[in-house]
Amino acid sequence: MDGEQARERPGTHPVGTAYVVLTHKDWPQVQRLVRAILASSPKSFVLVAHDSRRTRFPTGLDDPRVEVFEHGLATDWGSWDLVEATLRSFERVRRRADPALVVLISGQDYPIRRLVEWEAEVLAAGSWVGAAQALHYTPHWGRRRGEGQDLLTRYTHRWFQTPLARRGVRIEGRIGKLLRRLRGAVALRTEPLVSVRVVTRGRGVFWGIRRRTPFSAERPCHYGSQWVALGRTELDHLLDEDLAPGSPLRRFYRRTVIPDESAMVTPLSWHAEPAGLPPVTRVVWDAALDQPTVCTLDDLEQLERSGSAFCRKVDPTISAALMDELDRRIRVDA
């Protein structure tokens, strides 16, 4: 980064930490989250990376420590646009704030400990914070499923949608059921070459064809959380090398499904294992609803014991008492 880029930051000195907050709704709650971050880390910078299709956020804010960035991408769940919006936001905060540490969170998160203390722990750890595991899978021809974690096919296949799927058209009735049974049978019997996935919370049905990949025994594909904390070395590797505009890895992941759970943690893991710290965000998953559980004041003790910096998800009404109590605990001048 040259000197001209460095001077685009707020204030006269680089900030210690920049928080990138991915959002798509609920400006009052996002405002509260931003205030909580700055109360717990007053010298940090917050970039609200907003998908404005559903609702617009105000962009002319008085606090130079905060910027609303409308990236113009359709960040549906499981889409490449989520990764693209993240990378563009990382590049923006690097130019604007010149941070030593960048943290990616959601607009439905909330801090559960004093962030200045957590930031010091992360920087002292000397590596990135997140969760990642190497994926291994051996597919089979015929009716027997493969061995290992079939999540790997998200990234070993080149995925595309039919014209009907792109328009969100679903064939119902007996014909629709028959077509879905045939689809599943074809995908099972030809898995080493052809696969199918339904991104239920995203853009629907995708067909995949096996292709050459950048993965190897020494550099396997990894799967993990998109919510990470990166030191400057890791950030520069991602933006200038591994996932730089036009790079082979960036082009490769554009045609995968749910790339946000692999595209960043894979090259990060190639360089170094994540630090042995708790996840950036503590999440309890409700398998029946296929979404995080809502945190309440009853969860306070468990949240504090987790060691994570944030929890997800919070609801403006259901989590109000919890956020009130956290506000009292996380302020650096408390």
Describe the protein's architecture and organization.
34% of the residues lie in helices and 20% in strands. It has 334 residues and is an alpha/beta fold. It folds into two domains: 3-133 and 224-330, Spore Coat Polysaccharide Biosynthesis Protein SpsA, Chain A (Alpha-Beta Complex), CATH 3.90.550; 136-210, no CATH class.
Distance between the termini: 37 Å
The residue fraction in helices comes out at 25-40%
CATH-derived topology of the largest domain: Spore Coat Polysaccharide Biosynthesis Protein SpsA, Chain A
Q: H/E element string?
A: HEHEEHEEHEEEHEHHEEEEHHHEEEHEH
Radius of gyration: 21 Å
- Kindly report the spatial arrangement of strands forming the biggest sheet: 3-2-1-4-13
Number of domains: 2
Taking pLDDT < 50 over at least 5 consecutive residues as the criterion, the unreliable ranges are 1-13
CATH class category name of the largest domain: Alpha Beta
Structural class: alpha/beta
The number of strands is 17
Which structural traits does this protein have?
single chain, alpha/beta, Spore Coat Polysaccharide Biosynthesis Protein SpsA, Chain A, three-stranded mixed sheet, 17 strands
SSE order and pairing:
Layout: H1 3-6, E1 17-23, H2 27-40, E2 45-50, E3 66-70, H3 80-97, E4 101-106, E5 109-111, H4 115-125, E6 132-134, E7 137-138, E8 147-148, H5 153-156, E9 157-160, H6 163-166, H7 173-189, E10 194-199, E11 204-210, E12 222-224, E13 229-231, H8 232-242, H9 248-253, H10 265-271, E14 281-283, E15 285-286, E16 291-292, H11 300-306, E17 310-312, H12 320-330
Parallel strand pairs: 1-2, 1-4, 2-3, 14-17
Antiparallel strand pairs: 4-13, 5-17, 6-12, 7-8, 9-11, 10-11, 15-16
